[in-house]
Design brief:
CATH architecture of the largest domain: 2-Layer Sandwich
CATH class of the largest domain: Alpha Beta
Number of helices: 8
Shape: globular
Bound molecules: 2-OXO-4-methylpentanoic acid
Strand content: 25-35%
Number of strands: 20
Order of helices and strands: EEEEEHEEEHHEEEHHEEEEHEHEEEHE
Distance between the termini: 23 Å
Length: 356
């Protein structure tokens, strides 16, 4: 291993890469990790030496607060390689800002954005062989922070570990996405942590999502926790409804994640002259549109899922199929988004960020 000191980072390089041991044509989302990881500890009120080192296990006290109180947040980002071999990220500053918003809500100290960005640039340069060119191939970036102070007193930790892992990825959903509309369980509540990318928000969904999976559905569309009346967010993505030619998505709130793909879709709709309404939408409105034949599409939008069309939804055990459209909004947005992400199309919004 060689030790190099970059501007602000210590870099310990792995001697031999594992990249040739991986079957890139047959990836399970999030299973493989690249050669390196980024790590930075927080102690005595400050973030200490930021380091990139070979991917490997950690030694953490079983008393660490993350294990007892789930004090942890994460982000999801992606890097793409264009046909010239240049590597790009998509709106990374949005994720960096959101990570710190999530941290604040979980009483975790914010991480310096400039070190975050430098860490991303450096580790992506080092592991760029893991990013394969071509639409659909990407490197999923998983930054996260965990509370590492040992002690089971129920209060925030004084010590943390911030990390970045990289994982080669293809499609998140390989087949159909059929969803159940939640009638009983909730993902988030007013005043809670739904708007933060808190690890526990996802863990709490596994049980109700498994109930949906047992019935042949992949995801749940969560409804508001007060009345189960308003359609809010799907498990791994924000959700859009197309009624006639109008796109509708729920406004961000305490309960809904401010998705980067979500806001990019809204901007793309506006550029395409498609009416996009950011407003509450009820289950009754959805059912009425489905009954009268004006419900054209439902699709999810997220970093991992990109744009994932929903093929059917179930409410009160009644399943309704969505029409199969030749020229869907979902496909149009997916192509436009990926065109920008893979440096194949103009980027009028300045969303693309070249890794350097
Ligand atoms: C992402 O799109 O990055 C997500 O947060 C989904 C993840 C839970 C797989």
């Amino acid at each position: 291993m060689s030790l190099i000191s970059q501007q602000n980072l210590t870099v310990i390089k792995k001697e031999t890469s594992r990249v040739n041991d991986v079957d890139f044509s047959n990836l399970t989302f999030g299973k493989e990790f690249t050669d390196h990881m980024f790590e930075c500890d927080y102690k005595d009120g400050t973030w200490l030496e930021p380091t990139i080192r070979p991917f490997g296990p950690l030694t953490i006290s079983p008393g660490a607060k993350v294990f007892h109180y789930g004090q942890a947040v994460f982000e999801g980002m992606k890097a793409y390689k264009d046909d010239q071999g240049k590597v790009w990220m998509f709106r990374p500053h949005e994720n960096i800002k959101r990570m710190n918003r999530s941290s604040k809500r979980l009483a975790i100290p914010e991480f310096p954005p400039e070190i975050f960005l430098e860490a991303l640039n450096t580790i992506l340069r080092m592991d760029s062989e893991w990013i394969k060119p071509g639409f659909g191939n990407s490197l999923y970036i998983r930054p996260f922070v965990i509370a590492t102070q040992s002690g089971v007193a129920a209060s925030e930790s004084t010590e943390y570990k911030f990390m970045i892992l990289l994982s080669p990825a293809q499609a998140y959903y390989k087949g159909e996405v059929r969803v159940v509309i939640a009638e009983h369980y909730s993902r988030a509540a007013d005043g809670g942590v739904g708007a933060a990318k808190a690890a526990g928000n996802y863990g709490a969904q596994f049980y109700p999502t498994n109930l949906a999976k047992e019935k042949g559905f992949q995801q749940v569309i969560w409804t508001d926790s007060n009345e189960h009346k308003y359609l809010e967010e799907a498990g791994t993505m924000n959700v859009f409804f197309r009624i006639n030619d109008t796109l509708i998505t729920a406004p961000t709130s305490d309960r809904i994640l401010d998705g980067v793909t979500r806001k990019s879709v809204i901007a793309l709709a506006e550029r395409n002259g498609i009416k996009a309404e950011v407003r509450k939408i009820t289950i009754d409105e959805l059912l009425a549109a489905s009954n009268e034949g004006s419900l054209m599409e439902i699709f999810g939008a997220g970093t991992a899922a990109v744009i994932s069309p929903v093929t059917a939804f179930s409410y009160k055990d009644q399943v309704r199929q969505l029409p199969q459209l030749e020229d869907s909004f979902a496909m149009r947005f997916k192509n436009e988004l990926m065109g920008i992400q893979y440096n194949k199309a103009e980027d009028p919004f300045g969303w693309r960020y070249e890794v350097h």
